[in-house]
Amino acid sequence: MFESHSVSTDHKDLIHDVAFDHYGRRMATCSSDQFIKVWEMDSDNSIDGGWKLSATWKAHSGSVWKVTWAHPEFGQVLASCSFDRTAAVWEEIVSEQNIYSQTGQKHWAKRTTLVDSRMSVMDIKFAPKSLGLLLATCSVDGIIRIYEAPDVMNLAQWTLQQEVPCKHQASCISWNPSYTRPEVPMLAVGSDEAAAAGSSRVVVLHYSSYVRRWHKLENVPSVADPVHDISFAPRLGRSYDILAIATRDIRLFSICQLVGSAGTSRFEVTPFATLEDHNSTVWRVSWNSVGNVLVSSGDDGSVRIWRLSKQTSWKCVGTIKSDGRRLLLPEVMNAASLTLAKH
Amino acid sequence: MSSVRLEVLWSPVHKDKFITWGTEISLYETSEKCGDIRRTDYVDLSETSSARLLATNSSYHYVKAVDIHPMEGSEILLAIGQANGKVSLTTFGPSNFDFLGINGMDMVPKHPRQCNVVSWCQNDPQLIAAGLDRYRSDHCVLVWDIQSRTGAAVVAEMGLSDMAHSLTWLPDHHKTLVVGMNNKLLKMIDLRDPSKAACSSQTKAVYGVTAAPYSNFMLASYLESQVSIWDIRAFEKPVLTLLQSKPITKILWCPTRNNLLGSLQRDTKSIYLHYIQQMEELDHSVVERSIRPGVSHQITSFSWHPLDENRLLAITLSGLVTDTYVSERITLNWAQSTSIVWTHGQRTLQSVSCTDSVYEMLGDISALMKLRATRGYGLQYEMEENGDLVDDENLKLIWRWLGATKRLSDEFNINLPTRHLGIRSVLGMDKTTPSSISTKSEAVLVPFNGAGSNCNAKVYRSDVRDKALKLCDWSFIHNLPQLLHAVESLQSQGEVTKAVAVAVFGLQLNTAIKLLSSSTSEHTTISMALSGYSNDNESVWRDACIASRLKLNDPYLRAVFAFLTADSDNYNSVLEEEEMAVTDRIAFALAYLSDSKLVEYLNKLTDQLTVDGNLAGLILTGMSSSALPLLQQYLDSTGDVQSVAIFTMKGFPPSLLESNRAQYWISSYRELLDMWRLWDHRAQFDIQHNARTSLKPEQQIYVTCSFCMKTLSSNAFSRNKGPFPRTKVSCCPNCRKPQPRCSICLINMGTPSQSDASNCNSNNGGMKINTFSSWYTWCQTCRHGGHSKHIIQWFEDHQECPVTGCTCRCLSLDATSFTV
């Protein structure tokens, strides 16, 4: 009998985001109750799915929409964004009290508040570490802001590198997780604006290192429905990028970077797949660490897992009801799943 | 609004009871469905719940408003507001209210007119308020106390010659009501001073006024197709106005969620949900969505469950009641190769971790790669040992091939950039002459053993073909004793059909028939078919075999019959047997195809395998630049960056290894190892990688004297060539100044750099054997430090730097200290 592990978070209101650190051993949750909570993986502990609460604090004066971890190279650093129009950067430090205690009391200190947005900040993401310590935010006023901490030891100082206005209110943002230098940094932004028919809700920006500015990609296929989440797949050796878009269904785009003779790069964005099994609004999408398995959640109250098989076709390999009690494996895929399970 | 409009209401205090009313009032009890048992007295509400009718009350006609008494632990007590203004209290059957004389109590206004709303006070459950239509000289809001000494007594009356459309008690303010009046006014009235309104607001949105359960200040009301949200601290105008497409018939706050308002519009099948976002400084916004309870009729009313999160009942025009769970936005995330976490409801997280059996079903290859990495996959010096660590046959094949080619190139002492030659390079089909083989081969007629005296097969042989056969593990095909040995070993491994194919391709029909007849009964019949072999092109046997060949399940048996029935030199049906292992097909081609056909076939096969991303194609291409697209294709379809990076690192010649693509794969895999915290594996991978490239990593750390800035180590080494190495350099060999002291033991730092004589053989003469514990370590911030062992010991018990007066928190500044 399948049953997932349950963690009761003690948040006072709806949880909006769950984020894992680079190693998947720490978890941060944020909620409409304006609090952020940090959890440690504790494999000895079987209660609460092996997660132990290590910190909880009131972070904002409005719903906290998203929370995200920086690469551990920069320390234990979180960033959050909120309905209160601000984004904040938090760092875990050893507290001044309890010097003589065996284990230092750790707490999270606010390092900076980014107040440039005039409206609710909907998403915040750290750039891949090869770009340095960079943050991108997007807000309801439709402006994408890219901040940089010039000195990685000083998290209090952030300079606004560029503001890119988009036509619609933005809801989600994602960096392409490039691990190596030659790839051109990209940012994908989705909009959940319901009105404004006819125009696309997805904007992809790329960084031009000659002029040091972010530019919009022109040839992105149009997405006509409100977009709730957007996520680049980790690339890890693949020859192209995959962008997952959660809208009325799940859209997958593949993005090829073709480096021209003069060192200029050209991008080819092509629709890759459309996954419709949710039959309702899709809220979130997330990738495994290699980028060939996708997990999504939808308004049908289920979590679905999709796997790339045979190079281009995507199959739903499992459906879990959100209460974690029922797991459905499609019959067709059973054989394939079992051979994998054997290894 | 017609009187048959059906309404539904959960009991505020009973978890499992609700009422419906239209022309009559019915009480239902809900229960969870258990199993597949269908009980006839139950009606289905949803997939998981059903309800049973407990009682019906049809003694009241013209019911205009109903409210259930909110007292814990009591029976259901209804207050029924009727068209003549009378408010009656009633229960279903006998209850403890009978003794109090409450059951059956009627409260009658002085002048009869329609009652629009009745509402019990949550905080003071003996108070009930009723809102009535206009009457010239009477009040429109009446509040009764049902437990006063004289039965029900009016404790307050308000709104002389006004009309009340709706009213609500404020949950956190005792004895305060908000009333929607006269199509133009929302009035807040304190019962302690009912004569005048505490405050009021001019608005036409006077219908359905209701107070939010978690907020002390929030109200909602509606008018036609517009919902207004109010804050009683700023009552002059609504803080938010929500425009809807159709006229609204009902609004209700969700009792289990902050600031969630549900609304129902006329003639729709959906319920609209409005999440009101609130900030401290009176700034509001809204997120809206709609849900369909999955009914085919228009919904006439709905009711939130008082306790269960996001559960509501909806009732349709036809009286059908459905139980719906409003699923919250599920947020989810995937932790690196360890678990998937998502939210369930508002406050609970659900997770599936990699230790659960279900996780394997999902086919996350990164978990498999992590398992392989922890076993040391890719770090073994013997190629085949790496293959032993995986279960995948294709990967094992490649490791065997890598091992074989390595031994071969050592054996033949081939002086080529790559040691892992593909069959194409062995045959001389390199890039300059892709359409020809360097060495001409000769055709030999070999007698077919067991197929008649005049039966021969044309076999092609040359040096390079023999070498290539060796790479396919088929070197036995031209050597009878080896062939028989190979057949035996295959038979003992249970691969009978492959053994048969080997025997037939080796032209030993007798052996094949013997093999089959000693095997299972199914194979015995095939042995009969085989023994009837005749090489006559027109024979009945041949036609029959061609016809029934495709019905065989086993690819090797199909290939055997294809071979036996082939027209002179046309072996296409053998070569296109795709289920046969690639190496076997290549070996067959090497033995039986003429030079030109062989080239054609190998080119086609290479292209095919490259497009498929089939690793077996590496045997053709070798670890050369033409392997790059194949590996990329394999990686794109499987995500197995691990094997690709390891093949690249182990097999590619240095020139290719330093190419961008190869370096990209390798750095991706290193990133992955770091992410899994397998730093030791990463470091060993780096060591093997650097040993194969021409680039040597530069020395990264030098120890210099802080006075004269000359390096300590080189000087020390130049003197240490003698048989008695100095054990300590505690002062600068150049300027003779002492080295800094360890802040714990206060002994001067020295490098006890004894080159351990026992380990110091000719191969690794430069290797220094120092114990880690006596190395330098220092804080990057305060520059204090000492012997690493002492420093680690110190920070086990302390937080601050060991140097007196220095308050630097050295350890906690270190990002990796988290893992210590």
UniProtKB/TrEMBL annotation, chain A:
It comes from the Eukaryota. This is Seclosion hormone1-like (S. cerevisiae). It is found in: Lysosome; Nucleus envelope. SUPFAM superfamilies: WD40 repeat-like. InterPro entries: Sec13/Seh1_fam, WD40/YVTN_repeat-like_dom_sf, WD40_PAC1, WD40_repeat_CS, WD40_repeat_dom_sf, WD40_rpt. Its main location: other. It holds the Pfam family WD40. The keyword Repeat applies. WD repeats lie at residues 8-49, 275-309. Belongs to the WD repeat SEC13 family. Keywords: Lysosome, Nucleus, Protein transport, Repeat, Transport, WD repeat.
From TrEMBL, chain B:
The keyword Phosphoprotein does not apply. It comes from the Eukaryota. Pfam families: MIOS_a-sol, MIOS_WD40, zinc_ribbon_16. Transmembrane segments: none annotated. Residues 726-810 form the GATOR2 complex protein MIO zinc-ribbon like domain. CDD domains: mRING-H2-C3H3C2_Mio. Residues 369-592 form the MIOS-like alpha-solenoid domain. Keywords: Repeat, WD repeat. Belongs to the WD repeat mio family. PANTHER family: GATOR COMPLEX PROTEIN MIOS (PTHR16453:SF9), WD40 DOMAIN-CONTAINING PROTEIN MIO FAMILY MEMBER (PTHR16453). This is Missing oocyte, meiosis regulator, homolog (Drosophila).
